[in-house]
Write a structure and sequence with these properties.
The chain has 15 helices and 21 strands. With about 450 residues, the protein is of the alpha/beta class. The protein folds into two domains: about 240 residues, Aldehyde Dehydrogenase, Chain A, domain 1 (3-Layer(aba) Sandwich), CATH 3.40.605; about 180 residues, Aldehyde Dehydrogenase, Chain A, domain 2, CATH 3.40.309.10. Strands 11-14-15-9-8-16-17 form a seven-stranded mixed β-sheet, sandwiched between helices. The chain has a six-stranded mixed β-sheet with strand order 5-4-3-6-7-19, with helices on both faces. Strands 1-2-21 form a three-stranded antiparallel β-sheet. The longest helix has 27 residues. The radius of gyration is 25 Å and the shape is globular. The chain starts with a helix and ends with a helix. One of its GO terms (cellular component) is cytoplasm. Keywords: NAD, Oxidoreductase. InterPro entries: Ald_DH/histidinol_DH (IPR016161), Ald_DH_C (IPR016163), Ald_DH_CS_CYS (IPR016160), Ald_DH_CS_GLU (IPR029510), Ald_DH_N (IPR016162), Aldehyde_DH_dom (IPR015590), Aldehyde_DH_NAD(P) (IPR012394). This is Aldehyde dehydrogenase.
C-alpha cells in the first residue's frame, strides 16, 4: 500500500510529538491520569448532543440507543477506572524463594509509551474511548484512529478529544486504511484494534514488522442455545433486544439460535411477537445499515439463505434498510451460516438436543460470545465445560461486556487479549519484576570455581 508523502510526514510528526510528551514524564503521575479520566467524563456529559447527532448521521441510531450503547457504557467504564486507578498502580509484593534471601521482591506496572487505538464504525465512541480509558489509566500517550466509515463520529472525536484531554498526550489522526498502516509503521508500543477479522489480519501484519504487540477485538458467529428448559418468553425478549440494537451491527449480537426441537415452534412464535412489540407494530419497517457495501452483503445473505422466512426479509436499497428478519432452518452451507451476519437477520436452527447444539458450536471457529437459555444447572455446566468462546452469558446477553469487573475479549479467531476495568489497565502496562537485595551478606556459594562440595550444596536448593 502506497502512502503519500504529506500523510507520512504528518503521521511521523504526530508520533514524534507524543514521544516527546511521554519522555517528559507527566503521564506517569496518578494526578495526570485522574485528570484525563475526569476530562473524558465531562466530554461524555457535556457533548452528549453532539455524540447523539453524529451517531444518528452515521448509523441512523435513535437517541436512546446512542446513550445505552455509546455514551452511558463509556461513562461507566471511565468512572470505574478513575475511582480505582490509584489502587491499580500500586506495587505488589511477592514472596521470594530461599535461594533469593535475604531480599525483597515485587512487581510494578509501568506505561508502555505511545500506543495506538484503532476504532470501529459500529460503536464509534464506546469501542474507541473504552480502550483509550485503559491506555490513559496506564499512563500512556495515545494516538486515536477513528473509523473512516463513521465520518461524523470521527469528526466529533477529532474535535472533542483535544478540548477535554491533554492535547500533547492524546492525538486523533483521521483517514483511510493507508493512514492506519502508516501509523503502524512508526513502531508504536502497542496497537489496539476493534473490528472485523480480515482487517485485523492486516493490522497484525503491519504491527509484526516492528514487533508491536497487539490486542485484537474481533467478532465471529456468536451462538445462542435455547433448550427445552428455558423460559421462552424471557429468551425471546432478550435475544430480540440485543439483535435489534444498532440494527444488529454489534460484535456480540446473537448471530444464530440453536433451539431444541421440543420448543422450536413455541420459541419462534414468541420471538416474532416480541419483535413486533419492540418495533411498536412496525416490524416491516427497515433498519438502517451503515453503507452500500454492508447493505448489499446482507441482501445477498437473505436471498441465498434457504429455509423459511418467518419474519421480514424485505430490503430497500435507496434507504439502505433491512427489515428485522427471522429465518427458520436455513441451509447450513449457505453464506448466512458461513460468515458473521452483522445485521438484523437472525437464523434459527432446530437441533434435537443440547448435545447436538454443543457439537454444532464446536465444529466452528471459537466465537466472541456464547449464550445459553436454560433453567437447569447441569446444562449450564455442560456448555461452560465443553465449549470455548471469549465469554459466556447464561439466561441473558452482552452483560459480560457491560461489566468492568470482568475481562472482555475473544479467543482464537475472535480475538487476542482482553480489556475493561483493571484488564484494560494491564493490557496497556508492562508488569516489571523487581528484586532488591542488600550488599551484605555476599554469599560465595554462587561464584566460581564450582567445586564438588559447592555443587552438592547448590543441588540441595533445587
Amino acid at each position: 500500500m502506497t502512502v503519500d508523502t504529506d500523510t507520512a510526514t504528518t503521521v511521523g510528526e504526530t508520533i514524534a510529538g507524543l514521544r516527546r510528551t511521554f519522555a517528559d514524564g507527566r503521564t506517569r503521575s496518578v494526578d495526570w491520569r485522574i485528570a484525563q479520566l475526569s476530562g473524558l467524563e465531562r466530554l461524555l456529559t457535556e457533548a452528549e448532543d453532539t455524540i447523539v447527532a453524529a451517531l444518528a448521521a452515521d448509523l441512523g441510531r435513535p437517541a436512546a440507543e446512542a446513550f445505552i450503547g455509546d455514551i452511558g457504557a463509556t461513562k461507566a467504564e471511565t468512572t470505574f477506572a478513575r475511582k480505582r486507578v490509584a489502587k491499580w498502580m500500586r506495587p505488589r509484593r511477592t514472596r521470594l524463594p530461599l535461594t533469593a534471601l535475604p531480599g525483597r521482591g515485587w512487581y510494578q506496572y509501568e506505561p508502555l509509551g505511545v500506543v495506538l487505538v484503532i476504532g470501529p464504525w459500529n460503536y464509534p465512541f464506546y469501542l474507541t474511548l473504552g480502550p483509550l480509558v485503559g491506555a490513559i489509566a496506564a499512563g500512556n500517550c495515545a494516538v486515536v484512529k477513528p473509523s473512516e466509515h463513521a465520518p461524523r463520529s470521527s469528526e466529533a472525536l477529532a474535535e472533542l478529544l483535544p478540548r477535554y484531554l491533554d492535547a500533547e498526550a492524546v492525538k486523533v489522526v483521521e483517514g483511510e486504511a493507508d493512514v492506519t498502516q502508516e501509523l503502524l509503521a512508526q513502531g508504536l508500543d502497542h496497537a489496539f484494534f476493534t473490528g472485523g477479522t480480515e482487517i485485523g489480519r492486516h493490522v497484525m501484519r503491519g504491527a509484526a514488522n516492528h514487533l508491536t504487540p497487539v490486542t485484537l477485538e474481533l467478532g465471529g458467529k456468536s451462538p445462542v442455545i435455547v433448550t427445552a428448559q428455558a423460559d421462552l418468553d424471557v429468551a425471546a425478549r432478550r435475544i430480540a433486544w440485543l439483535k435489534l440494537m444498532n440494527s444488529g451491527q454489534t460484535c456480540i449480537a446473537p448471530d444464530y439460535v440453536l433451539v431444541e426441537r421440543a420448543v422450536r415452534n413455541a420459541f419462534l412464535e414468541r420471538l416474532v411477537a416480541t419483535v413486533h412489540t419492540f418495533r411498536d407494530g412496525n416490524a416491516g419497517t427497515g433498519m438502517r445499515i451503515v453503507d452500500e457495501r454492508q447493505f448489499g452483503r446482507l441482501a445477498g445473505l437473505i436471498e441465498g439463505a434457504g429455509g423459511e422466512i418467518v419474519l421480514g426479509g424485505g430490503v430497500d436499497r435507496d434507504g439502505l434498510t433491512v427489515e428485522p428478519t427471522v429465518i427458520a432452518d436455513p441451509d447450513p452451507g449457505s453464506g448466512l451460516m458461513a460468515q458473521e451476519i452483522f445485521g438484523p437477520v437472525l437464523p434459527v436452527l432446530t437441533v434435537p438436543t443440547l448435545e447436538d447444539a454443543i457439537e454444532f458450536v464446536n465444529a466452528r471457529p471459537k466465537p466472541l460470545a456464547t449464550y445459553l437459555f436454560s433453567r437447569r444447572k447441569p446444562e449450564h455446566d455442560a456448555v461452560l465445560r465443553r465449549t470455548s468462546s471469549g465469554g459466556v452469558v447464561i439466561n441473558h446477553l452482552a452483560f459480560h461486556c457491560m461489566t468492568p469487573q470482568l475481562p472482555f475479549g475473544g479467543v482464537g479467531a475472535s480475538g487476542i487479549g482482553s480489556y475493561h476495568g483493571e484488564w484494560g489497565f494491564q493490557t496497556f502496562s508492562h508488569r516489571k519484576a523487581v528484586v532488591s537485595k542488600p550488599s551484605r551478606p555476599d554469599i560465595a556459594l554462587l561464584y566460581p570455581p564450582y567445586t564438588g562440595r559447592k555443587m552438592r550444596m547448590i543441588r540441595r536448593f533445587f
